[in-house]
Amino acid sequence: xxxxxxxxTQFVTLPIGSSVTIKGRTLLxxxxxxxxxxxxxxxxxxxxxxxxxxxxxxxxxxxxxxRENGGWKCERISSQMPFEDDKPFNIRILVLHNEYQxxxxxxxxxxxxxxxxxxxxxxxxxxRDVSLTSVNVY
Length: 138
Description:
It is built from no helices and 12 strands. It has 138 residues and is mainly beta. The strands form 2 sheets. Strands 1, 3, 4, 5, 6, 7 and 11 form a 7-stranded antiparallel beta sheet that branches. A 5-stranded antiparallel beta sheet has the order 10-9-8-2-12, with no helix packed on it. It is globular.
């Protein structure tokens, strides 16, 4: 299976009811502290605001946040870690009316209330210490 270039950037629209599915694996064992970052940008530049920031510190915790008017807001941290060392991951981020729901390997794992309307998202970026086999918007 072909790997995608990382960072992977894709121009999107994310209406209510859509979802983003990310498949891949870490490049390093959890003991080496690999990370995964997914950003839903409101513009077509990495400097644009971020409606949803999802960052996994594998084996440790997950941080969710938004960046508005160039500044980060209050982060939400979860110690729930459904990811398994040296195993592929399948992340599905559902765009619901009031929140994003994150499903990891078929298990509902995280929620993040909308701070910026998802309809304003124009670009998804996935990056850090991972190899990606697919990033799909449905």
